[in-house]
Amino acid sequence: DSANQNLQSMVVGQQSTTNQQQSQIDSLKNKVNTQQAIIDSLRNNNLNDRLTQLEALVTQCCNAGSKSLPGNDNDNGNDKMNIHEVELASGKAIVLDQNVPNPFAENTTITYFIPDDVASAQIIFTDNSGKIIKTVDINEKGKGMLKVYAQDLSSGIYSYTLVADGKTIDSKKMVKAGN
């Protein structure tokens, strides 16, 4: 009888402990759910705030100046868009542009600008190890274009450098793709 009472007392004690632990688990689950709801709310609010800011910037950009885009409130039914292109240059800047297309298979084009006050200019082509492949003297001033034919060149990365009056002005890389 006393063994049964001890066993019954232990079972009641275990049930009480289990009930307390389940209560703690339920409380922790509620706290986790509450924290997740806060995180979701903050994430949504942050995204909504960022979206609102982005929409305001787009509206500000599209409505700025004299430009008129179709569908805007300020276009008065006019389907025209006023576009102004401006090229700024001091006339003294030496320019070496990136070859187009890049990468290329057989040929590519390089444009450049050499001011009148430059005495001598050349474009030097090198391989990836720095070995000079070809040097092209540029005798004309102003805007120029160099058409590069390289169908016999192996695939790889090559460089071209603009040198004016003995000074390196700019270097670019070009990629020769397989044929």
Structural class comes to alpha+beta
Helix content: 25-40%
Strand order of the largest sheet: 4-3-6-7
Instruction: Please indicate the percent range of residues in DSSP E strands (runs of 2 or more).
Output: 25-35%
Can you characterise this structure?
This protein is 35% helix and 28% strand. The protein has 179 residues and is an alpha+beta fold. A hairpin with a 5-residue loop joins strand 3 (121-126) and strand 4 (132-138). The longest helix is centred in the N-terminal third of the chain and has 62 residues, at 2-63. It is elongated. The N and C termini lie far apart (97 Å).
Brief digest:
This protein has 179 residues and is an alpha+beta fold. The chain has one helix at residues 2-63, and strands at residues 95-96, 107-114, 121-126, 132-138, 142-149, 156-164, 167-176.
Write the layout of secondary structure elements.
Layout: H1 2-63, E1 95-96, E2 107-114, E3 121-126, E4 132-138, E5 142-149, E6 156-164, E7 167-176
Which key phrases capture this entry?
three-stranded antiparallel β-sheet; 179 residues; four-stranded antiparallel β-sheet; 35% helix; single chain
